[in-house]
Amino acid sequence: MNVLEINTVTKRFGNLVAVRDVSLTVAKGELCAIIGPNGAGKTTFFNLISGYFPPTSGKIMFDGQDITRLSTHERVSRGMARTFQITEIFPELTVFENIRIAAEVAGGYRLRPWISRAEASKIHDNVETTLKLVALEAKADRLVGELAHGDQRAAEIAMALALKPHLLLLDEPTAGMGDQETYQITQLVRRLHRNDQYSIVLIEHDMRVVFNLADRICVLDQGRMLAQGTPQQIAANESVQAAYLGNAA
Amino acid sequence: MTLLLLFNITNGLIVGAFYVLMALGLSLILNLSNVINFAHGGFLVIGGYIAYAISPYVGFWGALLLAPPLTAVIGLVVERVLIRPLYGRDPLYSLLLTFGLAFMIEDLTRFIFGPQGKPFAIPAFLAQPLSNELFFITGYRLFMVAMVFVAIALLFVLLRYTRLGIRIRAGTLDLETVAALGINVRLLRSLNFAVGIFLAGLSGVLAAGQLGLEPTMGTGLLMPSFIAIIVGGIGSLPGTLVGGLLIGVASGVTAVFFPAASEAVIYVLMAVILLTRPRGLFGEEGMMG
Amino acid sequence: MTAASSRKLIVLAAIWVVLLLAPYWMAPLGGYTALATRVLVLGLAAMSVNFLLGFTGVLSFGHAAWFGLGAYGAGLTLKYLALSTPLAVIAGMLLGGLCGAILGTLLVRRRGVYFAMVTIAFGQVFYYIAFQWSSLTGGDDGLRGFARQPLDFGLFKLDILSDANIFYYFVLVCFALVVGTMGFILRSPFGRTMIAIRENERRARFLGIPVERHIWIAFTLSCFFMGFAGALYALVNNFADPRGLHYSQSGDFVMMAVMGGMRSFWGPLLGAAVFVVLQDYLSSITVNWMSFVGLLFILVVLFFPRGLLGFFQRSKA
Fold first, then answer.
1. Residue-number span of the structural domain to which B129 is assigned
2. Residue C197 in contact with residue C214, Cβ under 8 Å?
């Protein structure tokens, strides 16, 4: 069963073709990493998947249903969650409050002007479980805006997890982090993938992280899909080395 | 009837020209600095009263030449002292500040010059009607419209061909990139603000010659200028130009058939345009605005 | 119960005690009950503006329109339809709220200054209608010839028309109802989505919140609250003024909210109290009070942007 099937999507901005005829299939429980040099169209591709804007052409299937024209929030309610290259959180709220909002929306309570005790405690449990998953229980009452970068990123991932997604999209989860924090986030993603069987697509610059985590690697270059394969295949692929790894190293 | 219609269309064009002049200044400041300048009408008043104060010494032509740049200098000081600290903060604050500033300018003008209207003398040859038939077209009216269009033309030349103008336009599109290129964004915003205020000052002098001076003369022009910007499409200067002329003529023509609605019509026009084109006539579809 | 929440309860109790006893402590301080009533109503309006501004992060600079519509709705009802105070208040609230709901659909895709600008322009539409339609609204002179009616409960009557204290308590009950509703909504899951939108719109969207729809709901609720406040204001004055719809009135409301502290629930009420008393005082000592009000705006923005309560409190969901 495939979670995500992307069929030859293209995105143009005026004359610029940011993404050209890219196809990608993600199986249930798979961790797929997207790499490529700056300006390769990785984030644009992510924006297409998550519904930030519609593709110029092509088709996107999610859980076997066509979502090409659906808006962001409709995709989220079908089980797609995403994080951003620059952490997007609610800085003036506590970690607990951040995740509670996600849990309430996921529980279908977002329009409710009141909430029963039973419902509230169900939400509470969901938040607690999620906090444990990302190891932030001890910091639940801290303001997210005051946390260290790595913890903010973990809180953002926790918000995505509280939505109970079928697919997790992580845009450069270790961007701008030191070694210690990179390790912390890498371990978290690995746990989510190995232990909790999440299907994950991630964009990443740090090759150690990519080759450490990914079941499969997709290489984008100038808006095209240059190559796809296991980490070993990609490492051995000459055109990839020429286009990307050669320059980056 | 034809004459009446012509009269009102002319009137509408003149009024529209003022809307355009005001709205272009507002638009410049809004686009680059994200500031709704509520005090724009106040700067028009300052321009008019400066012209009034210096015209005994330098005459009409001297006042016309000097008042707008002097107003711009005042604008520059205001921008530097009051508005610059607010860049990067919620736009709410600059809005409230210029709102308060508008109060102060109006009230201080009243305090200094008195609440009564003041006449502003224009050269006699400009005050003559062109002909008996077309009594409503005085030389001054034509002169005013000509001045407005010269100012607009110069503005567009400035924006298209000078380094300052090109930077202003680039900054409007993408301020971060402009800053990253090493351009002094603070200076750019100051100069841009001054250009906008220059236009308000010019409107002040020209309006003074037609209508005389009153401390409240700017307030009445503010709202139509807002609507000109909205109708034309926020973010588009050509849109502002078209929007201003359109609502000016629309209210002029309406004055022929249904005088009471001549002011209401611009609101109706706005509603109709926003219903059919939510981003205004020249507005771009996009995530923002 | 934690220390923070018990402190909150104490503050809340103190606020209500102050409000309940206002007619008794105002007079010795040189005030009068009608001033307290006005503060309450304008405070309610400022809190309604802040429901949107402080808790959804959306700046409407045309909210006076819904306030003024509320006033005209109440006044016209009393003058032409029915001599009933409750009916007048409901009619005012509905007029302001429904007009806001309809125009809100045109607004919700805009953000920031652009939202502010379009709300100003739309607000002015209603100002012009009130100003021009003299046969119905009294035009520039305002709507006169109506008065709030005593409340008839069958067993007993409350004379809110001639007894200033009784009227104050009537307004206080109305105030409590609306403020209670606001507080209730802000503590609900929906209220938390409003705060989410204020904090980070993109994150909110990617949590599955249809942001435009939620902003529209918050906007509409705020318009209903505003209409309610406007209706009360018509009862306070037995008069509805077209200037109550003007954008400069919107500016005053926003200023009250900012001055009191827009991130706190009660801040706008405090801001309204300071603003009303100050304006009252300034206009009694100088004809140039406009300059001082203008100066106040500038000083608050430059030196006091978080408002009076901003230093002590942090808004919590």
1. 2-276
2. yes
